[in-house]
Amino acid sequence: MKSAVIVFPGSNCERDIAVALEQVSGHKTFHAWHRDTDLPEVDVIAVPGGFSYGDYLRCGAMAANSPVMRVVKERAAQGVKVIGVCNGFQILTEAGLLPGALIRNQSLKYICKTVDLKVENTDSAFTRHYTPGQHIGIPVGHGEGNYVADEETLKRLEGEGRVAFRYTDAAGVVNAAGNPNGATNNIAGIFNETRTVLGMMPHPERAFDPQHGNTDGRALFTSLLESLS
Amino acid sequence: MSVTHTPDREPKVTAELAAEHGLKPDEYASMLESVGRTPTLTELGIYSVMWSEHCSYKSSRVWLKKLPTTAPWVICGPGENAGVIDIGDGQAAIFKMESHNHPSFIEPYQGAATGVGGILRDVFTMGARPVANLNALRFGEPANPKTRHLVAGVVAGIGGYGNCVGVPTVGGETNFHKAYNGNCLVNAMTVGVAQTDKIFYSKAAGVGKPVVYVGSKTGRDGIHGATMSSAEFTEDSEAKRPTVQVGDPFTEKLLIEACLELMATDAIVAIQDMGAAGLTSSSVEMAGKGGLGIDLDLDAVPQREAGMTPYEIMLSESQERMLMILEPGREEEAKRIFDKWELDFAVIGKLTDNGRMVIRMHGHTWCDVELAPLFDKAPLYNRPTEPTPPQAEIAAADAPLKASARDTLLALMGTPDLASRRWIWEQYDSQVGADTMIGPGGDAALVRVHGTPKALAMTTDCTPRYCYADPVRGGAQAVAEAYRNIITVGALPLAITDNMNFGNPEKPRIMGQFAGCIEGMAEACRVLDFPVVSGNVSLYNETNGEGILPTPAIGGVGLLKDSTLAIGSGVKAEGDVVLLFGETKGHVGQSLYLREVHGREEGAPPPVDLAAERRAGDLVRGLIEARTLTACHDLADGGLAVGLAEMALRGKKGIALTGLEAADAGLLFGEDQGRYLVTVAAGDVAAVTDAAKAAGVPVTTLGTVGGDAITGLGGGALALADLREVHEGWLPGYMAGDA
């Protein structure tokens, strides 16, 4: 599995996700700069967390229009797997690779903690090593993770099995108490139509190593490895 | 059209103008003598900031010299941007803590944010990648109308800056006390990691070498911030808001990456961040340390607004700026890196051999003074000190329990100084970098040294009410508690940074507090082999004549060579046995119990037996190294019962206590020092007890881990669910306006 991670000015999780990709694949992850107009041949592209361009406009809006994202869109259209985490998820929605938008948390505060999640769909290159309905814990760290979309989009996402992860309470129940940011339908992560693009607010790379105290994010990377090699 | 500024448009410098700049009459006289003529406005500005308390440490220097600053592992002690210690394998930890108290009180979001930005720059300017932030916060009493606003703003500011730059905020402490009603304390600490052969210092060298400015443009913000921070507050301090700088964490992130990229080459001779007093202090310090002169051409300084005067440019505290001396001929290579990161880069002068600071702009010379007096002749005061009278020892029998032990513990766990700080630290990204092993809410934070088996332990500690009651004991206790917290995760305590927050040093009682705290700290540092490698002094923390509690905040750093040894402070497994190391005499003086239950904030604070601290610390660390302990927690505020409750809450398991049903307040809530709670597998109790006895450390068996309640206290079982509700409930409720 060959991978690239996209680095924008203000990205800050590129090393973390590259470590996870490199550890499962044994291949060095290529670091692409926002001004790059080409990428090496890779199987998966990661759009990392952080504060691209300071998030001084709408989160992800500037990054979505950077030169490198034109290449990412081309590759996504060819079926190359794309995962956007946190700011990466925001960028993918702004770039039109995923529907909907991520707005300010309902609490109006940044929140960093491990959240409970339900794995909604394991029929993808990203989630095949989870079991359907599996209850996992993965850290979030964001101020704008409140997922919103119009009625029609939500209906399609739900009807087509494109919700990847949903927030739950500690008992694994999808409810308001377990929703950290006010996301519609407790949505924590979604796929595109072909399930080759995944955007998610939680950081699987922060629940990867036994020393993180939690390895529930690891299956996402091993899923990719199995799917892509 | 702006008119070009010329020297004849500037006000004439007089004794009155010098006084407005904070210079005392004798200080101004000394300045006149050094300059040899009536200074220009720019020269007065430069002198006034360099001789301010903030930059010159004129009241504290004689005392700071008493602190031990060396050890075989210390690479660089106080005097540079931050302290440097050896952590093996050619790596160094670089760290410092710094206050941003005055700005944070005036404008909490920006004040706290730029505090984080400033301390980050102090660390990466030395070649380190910042790997962790901590913060020590003190606010006024909750009932004070301004407290809620300050907590919300300071926390949002720290998060807003730290989260964006991608450095995890992993620990710290927060207290509430009425003595901070008019002066909150915001002390920010950064820890970074560098290669020992790639450490950068601020001492300039090489006549003719270019002086280079990088980072953000210079604006009119923060002019005279250093002078503001060197004066007491009055009611009209709000009017000083324009002297508070505005932070841009995105630019800081770019600056970190660009500087580290340039530092990987050998183009940099010296580098210094532009912090307090901006371009003035950075240029004076760099050239001064090198024994050289400096010529600056201010027309070349990147400016954010038109029509700025030399005075404004030299005194601006605009953020996210660095000054460096480059090897000649390397400018283009360096500029390419800063262009890539879209940051300003300008050659603004050169080093000279004449020992003078010469500033030119618009074809005029605005400053031409000898450099040396700016730091050599800075005022130095050996201010009178008056010791704090000793407080009476209070016997536990004089402060009996007023309710059952169970109910008292439950109530205490929801008081402002003991309640959970989750509401604060969940607003900080504590995990970016993916190396955080123990984040906020533990005794010490633990962060892996990326790509190695090592981890750095770090903590901030101080108990200001102890320091107020007995500065010497309080100073020693702050260092000892930092030492203990680092021990609890298994690390070897290596060095500290200190942030000395005090009131007006011109008052003998305040200066006596300073001297006393230094004495206690120095003794603890010596006995515990825990030297001071960096620090910061913040004086004049007074409003309308009311001083804060003396607050020498200690930031400790330790090394765990094998991170797989690490243990946490939450109980681990059902059936583990809970042991107490250290002696309990039942010291209730200055305890939170005495304050919260009896409304008495009095008595002598607990004594600190440094030799016993050392014995207990070595014992615990040895047992962790042998993988014998399953959890470890130090005892501090609230004493034994609070420590047990915290361990149970963190581990989400109950504890069945034995032999404590009839325990008195002193035993349960006394704050005797040098104690640890540990858990061990039942089969290891005998061996651990023997080891403790052999080490001369008192050991007591307290109970067994299990269930979902703390049982065995007088008054019946205390369910963890009830305890959690009270402990977690206070701060969110208070911030929501419920309390």
TrEMBL record, chain A:
<protein>
    <recommendedName>
        <fullName>Phosphoribosylformylglycinamidine synthase subunit PurQ</fullName>
        <ecNumber>6.3.5.3</ecNumber>
        <ecNumber>3.5.1.2</ecNumber>
    </recommendedName>
</protein>
<dbReference type="Pfam" id="PF13507">
    <property type="entry name" value="GATase_5"/>
</dbReference>
<feature type="active site">
    <location>
        <position position="203"/>
    </location>
</feature>
<feature type="active site">
    <location>
        <position position="205"/>
    </location>
</feature>
<comment type="function">
    <text>Part of the phosphoribosylformylglycinamidine synthase complex involved in the purines biosynthetic pathway. Catalyzes the ATP-dependent conversion of formylglycinamide ribonucleotide (FGAR) and glutamine to yield formylglycinamidine ribonucleotide (FGAM) and glutamate. The FGAM synthase complex is composed of three subunits. PurQ produces an ammonia molecule by converting glutamine to glutamate. PurL transfers the ammonia molecule to FGAR to form FGAM in an ATP-dependent manner.</text>
</comment>
<keyword id="KW-0378">Hydrolase</keyword>
<dbReference type="GO" id="GO:0006189">
    <property type="term" value="P:'de novo' IMP biosynthetic process"/>
</dbReference>
<dbReference type="GO" id="GO:0005737">
    <property type="term" value="C:cytoplasm"/>
</dbReference>
<dbReference type="InterPro" id="IPR029062">
    <property type="entry name" value="Class_I_gatase-like"/>
</dbReference>
<dbReference type="GO" id="GO:0004642">
    <property type="term" value="F:phosphoribosylformylglycinamidine synthase activity"/>
</dbReference>
<feature type="active site" description="Nucleophile">
    <location>
        <position position="86"/>
    </location>
</feature>
<keyword id="KW-0547">Nucleotide-binding</keyword>
<keyword id="KW-0658">Purine biosynthesis</keyword>
<comment type="subunit">
    <text>Part of the FGAM synthase complex composed of 1 PurL, 1 PurQ and 2 PurS subunits.</text>
</comment>
<dbReference type="GO" id="GO:0004359">
    <property type="term" value="F:glutaminase activity"/>
</dbReference>
<comment type="pathway">
    <text>Purine metabolism; IMP biosynthesis via de novo pathway; 5-amino-1-(5-phospho-D-ribosyl)imidazole from N(2)-formyl-N(1)-(5-phospho-D-ribosyl)glycinamide: step 1/2.</text>
</comment>
<dbReference type="GO" id="GO:0005524">
    <property type="term" value="F:ATP binding"/>
</dbReference>
<dbReference type="InterPro" id="IPR010075">
    <property type="entry name" value="PRibForGlyAmidine_synth_PurQ"/>
</dbReference>
<keyword id="KW-0436">Ligase</keyword>
<keyword id="KW-0315">Glutamine amidotransferase</keyword>
<keyword id="KW-0963">Cytoplasm</keyword>
<keyword id="KW-0067">ATP-binding</keyword>
From TrEMBL, chain B:
<keyword id="KW-0479">Metal-binding</keyword>
<feature type="binding site">
    <location>
        <position position="245"/>
    </location>
    <ligand>
        <name>substrate</name>
    </ligand>
</feature>
<feature type="binding site">
    <location>
        <position position="96"/>
    </location>
    <ligand>
        <name>ATP</name>
    </ligand>
</feature>
<keyword id="KW-0436">Ligase</keyword>
<feature type="binding site">
    <location>
        <position position="122"/>
    </location>
    <ligand>
        <name>Mg(2+) 2</name>
    </ligand>
</feature>
<feature type="binding site">
    <location>
        <position position="273"/>
    </location>
    <ligand>
        <name>Mg(2+) 2</name>
    </ligand>
</feature>
<keyword id="KW-0460">Magnesium</keyword>
<dbReference type="InterPro" id="IPR010074">
    <property type="entry name" value="PRibForGlyAmidine_synth_PurL"/>
</dbReference>
<feature type="binding site">
    <location>
        <position position="98"/>
    </location>
    <ligand>
        <name>Mg(2+) 1</name>
    </ligand>
</feature>
<feature type="domain" description="PurM-like C-terminal">
    <location>
        <begin position="207"/>
        <end position="360"/>
    </location>
</feature>
<keyword id="KW-0658">Purine biosynthesis</keyword>
<feature type="binding site">
    <location>
        <begin position="99"/>
        <end position="102"/>
    </location>
    <ligand>
        <name>substrate</name>
    </ligand>
</feature>
<feature type="binding site">
    <location>
        <begin position="317"/>
        <end position="319"/>
    </location>
    <ligand>
        <name>substrate</name>
    </ligand>
</feature>
<dbReference type="InterPro" id="IPR016188">
    <property type="entry name" value="PurM-like_N"/>
</dbReference>
<feature type="active site">
    <location>
        <position position="54"/>
    </location>
</feature>
<dbReference type="GO" id="GO:0000287">
    <property type="term" value="F:magnesium ion binding"/>
</dbReference>
<feature type="domain" description="PurM-like N-terminal">
    <location>
        <begin position="79"/>
        <end position="194"/>
    </location>
</feature>
<comment type="pathway">
    <text>Purine metabolism; IMP biosynthesis via de novo pathway; 5-amino-1-(5-phospho-D-ribosyl)imidazole from N(2)-formyl-N(1)-(5-phospho-D-ribosyl)glycinamide: step 1/2.</text>
</comment>
<feature type="binding site">
    <location>
        <position position="535"/>
    </location>
    <ligand>
        <name>ATP</name>
    </ligand>
</feature>
<dbReference type="InterPro" id="IPR036921">
    <property type="entry name" value="PurM-like_N_sf"/>
</dbReference>
<keyword id="KW-0547">Nucleotide-binding</keyword>
<feature type="domain" description="PurM-like C-terminal">
    <location>
        <begin position="574"/>
        <end position="708"/>
    </location>
</feature>
